[in-house]
């Protein structure tokens, strides 16, 4: 016997009963199938911010907010990132299974060969002022990919989905690195196909022209393996996250039949907000603004004050009402890197003080406000010499595979419809 939901409406003393199927899930909450609720009852459901609304069914990523659990295609995030590279995580998300050695090698080569940009596309960077935020240039650059590579509007088969996915995953780090290089007035450094995905990104960010990438004045290698592994882990932790705000935007743009590249650039724009992916940059700005351990109490008080719009960046989450599992991995990574990379101990001291107070304060406990992924990324990225204005671009590079995977799942789902929510009208 299928589970059912019965809704009894009691309006103007008239009782009316309606029955709805309950949709099964393999993990997490089931859902009441309300697709005919409006046509049955003439009423809308009201759920601002979609706190209890499933906009789709999906097989990609599972989050358990109570337990603080995150799974990509069923693999728990902590175990996955401890054993697999970002490229293996990309392959898993796109193909529902981890790659064999040979599949990984071919995938890697496919991406390396696609990491270059059309020569005409490079002109776009010069059109931006030096102080343009890299997220603005990145969004414009990804949108313009649709002009330079105008195929893939109506994708017919898996080969085209793969080509579109590989092109975006491979080119977005190059667009991001070029946006940064332009913002500091230095020549663009072309991708080097001899380098791995993550090392190549650091190379395009740091190398000197003519590839004479030497050791720095203090004898440090320009790019060391510890930095590559740390950044690769950060990309993996950001790869996908169920139906978050930017993924919802990507699916909405997919639902109108727009080009996949502009769906992803729409995701980039949505991610930029400080309530979402832009929080990682705001966390560092906030730690610098707080300035000392002595000031922490004052800002915690502001964060708790309902009349003060100040919020603790990197704290709280719509789904996690426990530690964000990605934050747990990053906290461990931060401790590991303390010895090997120059982590900013002053900022870490302030961050640790915030965390200690917030986790024992009634206001945060009652609201289940825990550190999220953005609370820890900034300190590690700073130690990787990634400039603050590039933090959200790093999030974009990691999340691109998730947006594309969700885009493809949407397009292949025969139940998909154009996104068109309704409203409760309060006007005249
Ligand atoms: C990401 O969705 C995803 O999966 C996103 C993400 C992903 O991988 O895609 O995980 C990435 O976006 C992480 C979140 C990064 N954002 C921040 O760190 C910004 C600071 N956090 C908040 O703005 C907030 O917590 C949100 C936006 C993340 C969540 O907001 P909700 O779920 O809508 O919660 P809410 O705003 O309704 O807050 C509930 C209560 C409120 O107090 P009351 O009205 O009940 O008294 O908690 C308070 C809020 O004022 N609150 C905070 C707070 N976050 C929530 N108070 C102080 N500081 C905070 N950070």
Q: Can you describe this structure in just a few lines?
A:
By secondary structure, this protein is mostly helical.
User: What structural class is derived from the secondary structure elements?
Assistant: mainly alpha
Helix content bin: 40-55%
According to DSSP, the number of beta strands is 6
The CATH class of the largest domain is identified as Mainly Alpha
Order of SSEs, N→C? EEEHEEEHHHHHHHHHHHHHHHHH
**Fourth-tier CATH superfamily name of the largest domain:** Citrate Synthase, domain 1
**CATH-derived topology of the largest domain:** Citrate Synthase, domain 1
- Beta content comes to 5-15%
What compounds are bound to the protein?
s-citryldethia Coenzyme A
What sort of overall outline do the alpha carbons produce when their principal axes are compared? globular
Q: Report on the biggest sheet.
A: 3 strands, antiparallel
Give Rg in angstroms.
23 Å
The spatial strand order of the largest sheet comes to 1-2-3
- Count of helical regions: 18
Distance between the termini: 47 Å
Mean pLDDT: 94
Number of structurally distinct domains: 3
Explain what you see:
It is built from 18 helices and 6 strands. The protein is mainly alpha-helical and 428 residues long. The protein folds into 3 domains: 4-69, Single Sheet (Rubrerythrin, domain 2), CATH 2.20.28; 73-273, Citrate Synthase, domain 1 (Orthogonal Bundle), CATH 1.10.580.10; 279-383, Cytochrome p450-Terp, domain 2 (Orthogonal Bundle). Helix 9 packs across helix 18. It is globular. The model has no long low-confidence stretch (mean pLDDT 94). It binds s-citryldethia Coenzyme A. Residues 49, 241, 244-245, 275-277, 279, 303, 306, 311-319, 367, 369, 372-374 line the site of s-citryldethia Coenzyme A (SDX).
């Amino acid at each position: 016997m299928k589970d059912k939901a019965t809704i009894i409406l009691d309006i103007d003393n008239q009782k009316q009963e309606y029955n709805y199927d309950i949709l099964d899930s393999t993990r997490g909450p089931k859902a009441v199938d309300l697709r005919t609720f409006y046509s049955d009852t003439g009423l809308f459901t009201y759920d601002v911010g979609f706190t209890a609304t499933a906009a789709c069914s999906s097989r990609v990523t599972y989050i358990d907010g109570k337990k603080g659990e995150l799974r990509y295609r069923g693999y728990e995030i902590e175990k996955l990132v401890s054993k697999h590279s970002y490229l293996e995580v990309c392959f898993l998300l796109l193909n529902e299974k981890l790659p064999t050695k040979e599949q990984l090698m071919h995938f890697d080569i496919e991406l390396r060969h696609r990491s270059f940009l059309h020569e005409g596309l490079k002109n776009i960077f010069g059109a931006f002022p030096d102080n343009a935020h890299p997220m603005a240039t990145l969004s414009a650059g990804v949108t313009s990919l649709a002009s330079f590579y105008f195929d893939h509007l109506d994708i017919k088969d898996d080969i085209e989905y793969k080509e579109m996915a590989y092109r975006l995953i491979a080119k977005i780090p190059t667009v991001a690195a070029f946006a940064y290089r332009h913002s500091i007035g230095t020549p663009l450094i072309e991708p080097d196909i001899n380098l791995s995905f993550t090392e190549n990104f650091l190379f395009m960010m740091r190398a000197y022209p003519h590839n004479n990438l030497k050791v720095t004045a203090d004898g440090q290698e320009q790019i060391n393996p510890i930095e590559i592994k740390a950044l690769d882990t950060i990309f993996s932790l950001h790869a996908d996250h169920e139906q978050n705000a930017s993924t919802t935007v990507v699916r909405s743009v997919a639902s109108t039949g727009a080009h996949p590249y502009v769906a992803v650039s729409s995701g980039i724009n949505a991610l930029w907000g400080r309530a979402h992916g832009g929080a990682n940059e705001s966390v560092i700005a906030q730690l610098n603004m707080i300035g000392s351990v002595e000031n922490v109490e004052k800002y915690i008080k502001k964060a708790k004050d309902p009349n003060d719009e100040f919020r603790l960046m990197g704290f709280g989450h719509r789904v996690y009402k426990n530690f964000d599992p990605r934050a747990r991995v990053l906290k461990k990574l931060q401790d590991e890197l303390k010895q090997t990379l120059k982590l900013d101990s002053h900022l870490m001291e302030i961050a640790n003080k915030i965390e200690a107070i917030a986790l024992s304060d009634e206001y945060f406990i009652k609201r289940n406000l825990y550190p999220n992924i953005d609370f820890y990324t900034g300190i590690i990225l700073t130690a990787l010499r990634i400039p603050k204005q590039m933090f959200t671009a790093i999030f974009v590079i990691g999340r691109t595979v998730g947006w594309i995977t969700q885009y493809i799942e949407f397009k292949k789902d025969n139940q998909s419809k154009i996104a068109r929510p309704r409203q409760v009208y309060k006007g005249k």
